[in-house]
Sequence to fold (941 residues):
Amino acid sequence: MADLKVVGQPLPKADAAAKVIGAAVYADDIVLPRMLHSKLLRSPHPHARILSVDASAARRIPGVKGVLTGQDLPIRFGILPVSQDERALESEKVRYVGDPVAAVAAVDEETAAAAAEAIRVEYEVLEPVLSIEDALRQPGDERIHASRSLPANLHRLQSYEFGDLAAGWARAAHVREDLFFFQGNTHLPMEQHSAVGQWVDGRLTVWSSTQVVHYVHRALSKVLELPMNKIRVIGAAHGGGFGGKTDPFAHEIVVAKLAMVTGRPVKCTLTREEVFYAHRGRHPVLMWVKTGVDEEGRITAMHFRSALDGGAYGSYGAASVFYTGTLQTVTYDIPAYKFEGCRVFTNKPPCGPKRGHGTPQPRFALELHLEKLAEEIGMDAVELKRRNFMQPFTRAVNWLRVTSCGLEECAEKVLAASGYRTRERRPGRGQGFAISAYMSGAGTAIYWNGMPHSEVQLKLDRTGVTAYCGAMDIGQGSDAVIAQIVAEELGIQAADVRLVTADTDSTPIDLGSYSSRVTFMAGNAALEAARKMRALLDAAVDARAGVPFLEACELAETKWGALSTAGSYTPPRIGGPFKGSGVGPSPAYSYSAAVVDVDADARTGIVRVNKVWIAHDIGRAINPLLVIGQIEGSVYMALGEALMEEQTFRRQLGLHKWPSMLEYKSPTFVDTPEIESFLVETVDPEGPYGAKEAGQGPLLPVIPALNLAVHDALGVWIDETPVTPEKVLKALKDGRVGPKMFPAVPWPEPIIVEPPARDDMRVGAELEAAFPSA
Amino acid sequence: MAGLLNELDRPVDRRVLVLRVNGEDHQLLLPVHKTLLEVLREDLGLTGTKHGCELGECGTCTVLVAGEPQLSCLVLPVQLGGREVTTVEGLTAGSELTPLQRAFADLGAAQCGYCTPGMLLSATALLRSNPKPNATEIREALAGNLCRCTGYSKIVEAVELAASGRG
Ligand code: FES
Ligand code: FES
Fold:
């Protein structure tokens, strides 16, 4: 692949020019003739039964064209088949401050807001459940979701044992246990969520700022009881997701229903305060980890426990629990591993997937824990970690299959560039080092289906080529990646590839822009479609060399009529022979390493980040400009989580403390340091041209590296996020800030899983045939 | 010009105003409480100006008023007193991108692009008052504009490139 011409070029995003002149049309920019505006009425209580809803006053307000209550949208939905626990508008009870109860469509936003306020809802207030500890106890009044089979407010409960734990502990020369807490935080996309619904002649069209048009399509079909061919979902230009626009949302269903009821287009744009309630952000997670190492510092066994504060609904939570336990084994070689995880419901906005989905929390815990372990046994922490690095082409104890792995090279790059080993040692100045891994897309779809995870169609005629792809460009530049792959194969410029994306009427299935899956999966689908098209073009020009592209297109159309080809990607079965093995497997893992350099002021507690060095094993950078953009954005977002961002609530009231951008602190230009990025290209055997993911992995090592830098500077341990000045000062007084206990959880008997052979690289049918009973 | 009732039966004060935006005059009848952000987007169809909070907290809605960056969500048109407003649509004369726009596009300073119009206007004002800013000056001048995608580095580089005249 030495002669790649378009792949590997740092080209601008496909829509860059439209975005710098203000021409890109985001959902809230859409204006349709006779369009109405919608507002949701949300619960003021964290936990309450709804006794009655009286919308008569709202209906009487001039300009109000439609009112919906829970009776109008009774069908439940939810992103995962196991968690169909949400309603667009609740009619029985509310479960967090901000839970939608009613909706209004009116001629303008002001009238809609006033009408929503005029709706009278009578509540019977229930005792709220606001912490993990409370959720594990029998509730004062009633459970948040009464129908669950697990006790108290437990949502999910998992226990797994991989390999011979007893032998692992017996072999250990040193064993250490630690407790950590990762605070919840939110995506804070600059664009407030927005959707527009239109109903014409029995057909529904919804434009939305979603990351996954397919999932919105499915939810609308279910809740509105419309067949999918009567619904079209279009992704508008996207103002930032980071995982926060991956669930179907109440406002998307409401604009659709209101459009059906009123016969007019309806728009709903959330206020910034409502965006904090829509949430689906980082779970607060309490973690306990115990690790044994032998005399050489090699891990002999590990036991990891996590408790996730899930908020009021399931969302992606059933997967999130698994993610807090699965990827430990793909960075460090752990011969025996036990994982116990639980998620609880609380009366707060639902948590879900934020960049790194369920893995930043355990990564934070694990990197700090191993550093403590190394300190305790008097070993250099970097050396201890390196001795346990996962090697390429190895199968982990929990069956995750590692192919290309640039961990060593990533670590070496940042250690050398930062001068970590020879860093200046003085109080107040410090550096921290950490590593991580992330998935290039999930190996299993979130709902059972036999379809490919991505498909790309190409259409070619005398006017050139158009690529149809269901993935949503959420700013990361996935459209440019598809264009570059097609252009590479057809021997043209990326700008010559026209793109139609994220439109359920015209694009084939794609599971969307999350899980770091687009480059790998849609990229592979585009590659296949383009290679087929190339073969047709070659046949059309009949081996004549040097025929210009458009001329070749005309020859092809003359010969066969307009041409179309399709490519698709379905990951092979990779997971092991046990229930729950679907979460964690990925066709390839990216690797990252980071060093963070800080000044930490012992007098004020203020931590200032001087610089971050980060190396990322991208497999191959199809577009290095966009890869660096993902890395820099990830580092920034990680520093926000590490230093200041937290989504917290007032005790008793369940009120969000900071539902505004002023009070929810996020890093500005002056808080964000210089970032030096290194790309490591390991050329993965299954990625398109060897590419792996870049959107999430680089966030992961930065958070622990920041805490470790503060430890290096001041000698204190801050075993939770974020590292605020108050915590630094408290840690200087007490030596440590962090959780003191892990609550009693009724863990079930573990599922015992026989580990694979370490060199077992089999996948798909070959792997399945080897399973005794599965 | 009081007297017109809105849909909620409250009297709404409306005024006829002439708003000069991107070199064009617009005569509008506006409720006095309507913000410049709303008027630009809803009455003039200039949806290039974005919003992230509508409370003066994020900088996304930045426009230039008489050349100075202002948060359009906090400005009422009645306060403008004839001063000219420049939005992202007004940066370009004809179809050529300005050096700043070109640099933003080429260097990846716009990812989702939602913060970009506000960034461009803040940066335009900076380059007018300080044509050769250093990185620290750029960071300080743009500190009121939040971006969630880029980590800011590429935006700083784009402003530097535009200032260098090499863009
Ligand atoms: S929308 Fe005006 S500052 Fe945020
Ligand atoms: S580019 Fe997305 S917020 Fe700045």
In short: Residues A 190, 240, 475; B 110-116, 147-150 surround FE2/S2 (inorganic) cluster (ligand 2) (CB under 6 Å). Residues 285-444+578-737 of chain A form a domain with the Aldehyde Oxidoreductase; domain 4 fold (CATH 3.30.365.10).
